[in-house]
Amino acid sequence: MQDTSFAILPDNQHESKKIDYKSIGRLVSYTAVGNNTLEITCENGFVSIIFYRDDIVRIVMNPKNKPSKKTSYAVVMEPENIALSITEHVDEIVVSSNKSVLVIKKEMLKISIYNEDGNPVVEEIENGFGFNENQELICYKKMDHDDHYYGFGEKTSFLDKRGEKMTMWNSDVYAPHNPEIDALYQSIPYFMTIRHGKAHGIFLDNPSKTVFDMKSSTESYTFTAEAGQLDYYVFIGPTPKEVLEQYTTITGKMPIPPKWALGYHQSRYSYKTEQEVRDLVRSFKEKEIPLDAIYLDIHYMDGYRVFSFDGERFPNPQKLIQELKDSGIHVVPIVDPGVKEDPEYSVYQEGVRGNHFCKYLDGTIFHGDVWPGNSAFPDFTSSNVRQWWKDSHKFYTNLGIEGIWNDMNEPAVFNETKTMDLKVVHDNDGDPKTHRELHNMYGFLMGKATYEGMKEQLNGKRPFLLTRAGYAGVQRYASVWTGDNRSFWEHLQMALPMCMNLGVSGVPLCGPDVGGFAHDSNGQLLARWTQFGTFTPYFRNHSELKSVRQEPWSFGDKYEKIIKKYIQERYVWLPYLYTLFQESSVTGLPVMRPLVLEYPNDKHIFNLSDQFMIGCDLIVAPILTPDTYQRVVYLPEGNWINYWTEEMLQGGKHHLVEAPLEVLPIFVKQGAIITQGTVKSSTETKESEMNIHVYPEENKKVTYRHYEDDGKSFAYEDGKFFECKIHATLENNRLEIIIDTENEQYRPDWVNVVITIHGVNSDVELIINGKKHKNIGLLTRNIVQVSVDRTNFVTNS
Ligand code: MIG
Asked: How far is CA 332 from its chain centroid?
């Protein structure tokens, strides 16, 4: 991009050469293989259709060879054994599973898929499949006038991606993050369509450069791949949540993160010395601001050599890390892929001797310039290299480190193309492929090695990994932050749809740098951004070397008070958030959601980019512009209660709500039950009391499931968790609450439970676990409170 008007000189506009795509042509023959596969030969190429499940179909097109069934590392599922029925007609072949019908048109091969009701899910039009002389591959699909598109990983601009053309090419983009930038650090070539209230999804499993064009036509959209095969999965839906379940069955789910990963994190490029780190911790403690993690950016290293500490700046890292951990704070160091070319540096020596670095075809190592200067890059496509990288992490885990931050893993290189030479040939475990073919997989595989290494070394503790680059399935190993944003209100605004779409793309633990990374933040922006941060799944304040300081107290008392309040609020909401992360580990559903995930039929919300849901009962509507103390909030069907004022608002409408600087507008759906904890200095502090908030609805039985475990280990996988169901029924001023412990193999720290009932009168008849309660305290208008013991919960099981 040129940055003067020279770019638009009349004679300077060269038309981009259009390269025509040739169709794969007429069906010549087909064979059914096993129970779930159809192999098709066409005039100009080959297509395989593999049913993974009744509601998940994989289609692979290859113009040159019979399609390879090998998948990328993104895919964790093997096809299930299902029974297909195949019928041949004169001009088409019909393949049916229990939940879908696939119709293959023979003349100029085109594949369409219908759901159980006979409604089209995806329909190929125009050329169907095509390819061109550059071996680029394309697929044309029909666009419905009511299509809305979500997902695509980490993208700028608004929520609904209809009208956008998006490139998947992991890129280090320091600036600008604006609507023109269509490739950022992550590539998740997956999206969900919502059409007339029903949903389906497509995942194009190809780690080379891919492009999704939902812009150039209103009749069709296309996706293209620059190299490899056109290998994609169709998820039949029919609800948005089912699509996510289907997509994350293919690409995996995020295991429950360690609880400390969900607390408040403080970072800066860089906290440069042990003294600076200790001073920082002291400030948090003195000011009583909760804190769970501190990040060490590149200055902790000896000359930017990964797997090292600078001996002067950090003379005794082990002691520092242990002492901080004893006070409830984890230390997370940054690890970049670039290994400094230094013949006297053991990691470089090992890498060269062990054959671990990326190479050209002729065997010479690729070197590129990054922070440490000239560097070599581990070839993470090889399992040997990953094993080496895993083992290398003993350097960190032996020091007591349980969390790692992977940066620059697009990989970013300081040169014209900003990345590794595309001619590098990756080992790929004996199936060599160029960097051009595998680029988008590099950061994912670095994350895989890092996470698995830590997991092996942490003796049963859950590792935490934060990554900048990734590919579909990255959620199995890492959380994602959205890279180098700026302290602009516009970037606060953009973070909402970006994180919602990451959530729809299977990544539940994500968030932006709170306060903005580059540029100078200010008190009001940091206050509003921290309010939003209370509910972003990942909550870290991070800022750049040259920007003004951005710690919670940097802009004076007035702002510090508000920022502190919302960091504390995060800890109050943690039990609720934690339950949602556990749910996500099972269902793949995001914690932070666009409203369209819950209300796919509501026309007001297809592109609603400035408010979001946490779970299915909470709407959060942050303030995203300066000097703004009111805003419009849209509430979908049902009744909604203003969390702060208890005011009941009618859904299906827009409302103007008050939001003075100390208020983040939050709305709870009537019929919801919410569990909350208490303010504490970090997640390491024991929970002293559980708060159950009930927002009952007349003549309705509502149920909430609360989940808890030790927050640290994988013992939950063996059933060592706590789970209770809370039921509430309100009828004729009589409220019956039943708290039913379903599993108590893990015993929570808290015994005392305060139940707060919202929107009832003081004379309400209250029955809890079969017993009538008299000790009702009326808090204010319409709120009743009562205390019970966990030991009084009923147990059904
Ligand atoms: O080229 O390590 O996005 O969070 O502070 C800059 C220094 C390298 C980019 C990351 C940012 C980090 C910075 N890194």
From this structure: 20
Which atom from ligand 1 is nearest to the alpha carbon of 542? 4
Number of H helices, E strands in the chain: 11, 53
Residue 126 domain-assigned (yes or no):
yes
Chain segment 23-79, per-residue pLDDT in tens: 999 999 999 999 899 999 999 999 999 999 999 999 999 999 999 999 999 999 999
State the amino acid at position 622 in one-letter form: P
Q: How far is CA 308 from the centre of its chain?
A: 30
Instruction: Give nearest CA residue, ligand 1 atom 14.
Output: 407
- Identify whether residues 657 and 735 lie together within a single domain: no
CATH number, position 160: 2.60.40.1760
Q: Which atom of ligand 1 is nearest to the CA of 270?
A: 5
Closest atom of ligand 1 relative to the 468 alpha carbon = 3
* pLDDT at residue 8, as a whole number: 77
Which of 616, 636, 667 finishes a domain? 667
What does the DSSP 8-state code read for residue 314? -
- How high is the pLDDT of residue 797? 47
User: Quick one: 636 and 772 in the same domain?
Assistant: no
CA 154 to CA 474: how far, in whole Å? Answer: 12
Least confident of 248-262, 423-437, 768-782: 768-782
Residues with CB under 6 A from ligand 1: 269, 297-298, 334, 407-408, 468, 483-484, 517, 542
**Do 711 and 622 have their domain in common?**
no
pTM: 0.97
Predicted confidence band at 714 (pLDDT cuts at 50, 70, 90)?
very high
643/713 same-domain check: no
The pLDDT value recorded for residue 792 is: 83
Domain with 186, as residue range(s), is 21-251
Eight-state DSSP code of residue 337:
S
Q: Are residues 235 and 205 in the same domain?
A: yes
**Domain boundary at 251, 283, 300, which?**
251
Among the atoms of ligand 1, which is closest to the Cα of residue 334? 2
Instruction: State whether 649 and 691 are in the same domain.
Output: no
Based on the fold, state whether residues 743 and 787 are members of the same structural domain.
Answer: yes
Sheet holding 45-53, edge to edge: 27-33, 37-42, 45-53, 56-62, 230-235, 198-204, 190-195, 148-151
Per-residue pLDDT tens digits for 759-790: 998 788 999 999 998 756 666 778 888 999 99
Query: How far is residue 737 from each of residues 6, 672, 696, measured CA to CA in Å?
Result: 70, 13, 10
Q: Looking at residue 625, which CATH number applies to its domain? A: 2.60.40.1180
Specify whether 663 is located in the same domain as 700.
no
Q: What percent of the chain has pLDDT over 90?
A: 92
- Tell me if 602 is assigned to some domain: yes
Of the residues 171, 177, 269, which should be mutated to test ligand 1's pocket, given the most ligand atoms within 8 Å of the CB?
269
Q: What is the DSSP string of 205-230?
A: ---S-EEEESSS-SSEEEEEESSS-E
Q: Could you give the residue numbers annotated as active site?
A: 407, 410, 484
Does residue 384 belong to any structural domain of this protein? Answer: no
User: Does residue 571 belong to any structural domain of this protein?
Assistant: no
Task: Let me know the angle formed at the C-alpha of 89 by 144 and 42, rounded to the nearest 5 degrees.
Answer: 75
Q: What is the mean pLDDT of the chain?
A: 96
Q: Is the peptide bond before 681 cis (omega within 30 degrees of 0)?
A: no
Domain count, the chain: 3
- Secondary structure class of 385 (helix, strand, coil): helix
pLDDT at residue 174 in the model: 94
Alpha carbon of 407 to ligand 1 centroid (Å): 7
In whole angstroms, give the CA distance from residue 712 to residue 715.
Answer: 9
**pLDDT bracket for residue 185 (50, 70, 90):** very high
Structural contact between residues 508 and 537, judged by C-beta atoms closer than 8 angstroms: yes
Residue nearest to atom 5 of ligand 1 (CA): 269
Pocket test for ligand 1, best of 336, 408, 467 (most atoms within 8 A of CB): 408
